[in-house]
UniProtKB/TrEMBL annotation:
This is VTT domain-containing protein. Residues 206-215 have a biased composition (Basic and acidic residues). GO terms for cellular component: plasma membrane. The chain crosses the membrane at residues 12-36, 42-64, 134-157, 163-181. Keywords: Membrane, Transmembrane, Transmembrane helix. Residues 24-144 form the VTT domain. Pfam families: VTT_dom (PF09335). Residues 195-215 are annotated as: Disordered.
Length: 215
């Protein structure tokens, strides 16, 4: 398990930036944990979390604004969460740019709803700057403050690491065997293809003279 901590220390800055660009809170908390361990300063990880979150939200907003007919945007529009996000945009207007980060499961549909709304790009930039700054400060601080608790969790996981690895390997092997049997089992048993396809047997071979063809 300490190998994981080593990877976090080594690639932590990349993890924080990429993670906050695409996802969110967990990676900002990891940044705070890095600062607690002393591998990075709190100011650096906070700045990276801010930059990743700011650029990630801006990218989605601009994509929805200028490529609203793209199938990715249209797929989100058809989801129930988009309707909820749209109601929140109507309620909070441009300030939903700040609120959106704290509503679970609505970051993506909320940004798309904002991109399709009447909010101007300059106003979004200002509010996104404020929102990303507050968000990064809060969640990296959480990771820093609770760094001791996170370290304790890693220490406890170390005790069961090997057992967990064997269990995961066993599950993966069983799943692979099951899928292989589903795919190739009927063929190995010699089951006819038409039976595997649902038992529908069609007429094979020439029609005898005494057989009447359907009209």
């Amino acid at each position: 398990m300490y190998e994981i901590l080593g990877l976090i220390d080594r690639f932590g800055l990349v993890i924080v930036f990429v993670g906050t660009f695409f996802e969110g809170e967990v990676f900002a908390i990891i940044g705070g944990f890095l600062a607690y361990r002393g591998s990075q300063s709190l100011q650096v990880v906070m700045s990276l979390a801010f930059t990743g979150s700011f650029l990630g939200d801006l990218a989605v907003f601009l994509f929805a604004r200028y490529f609203s007919n793209h199938r990715w945007v249209q797929r989100w529009i058809r989801k129930p969460k988009f309707a909820k996000a749209l109601r929140l945009v109507d309620r909070f207007h441009a300030y939903f740019v700040i609120v959106n980060r704290y509503v679970y499961g609505l970051r993506m549909p909320g940004l798309i709803a904002l991109g399709l709304s009447s909010i101007t790009v300059p106003r979004f930039l200002v509010l996104n700057f404020i929102g990303a700054g507050l968000w990064a400060a809060i969640f990296t601080s959480i990771g820093y403050v609770f760094g001791y608790s996170i370290s304790s969790v890693f220490a406890q996981l170390e005790a069961v690491e090997h057992a967990a690895i064997y269990i995961l390997i066993g599950i993966a092997v069983i799943l692979a065997l099951y899928l292989a049997w589903r795919q190739f089992g009927p063929m190995l048993r010699g089951t006819p293809r038409n039976e595997r396809d649902g038992g529908m047997v069609g007429h094979v071979g020439p029609v005898r003279d005494d057989e009447t063809l359907p009209r």
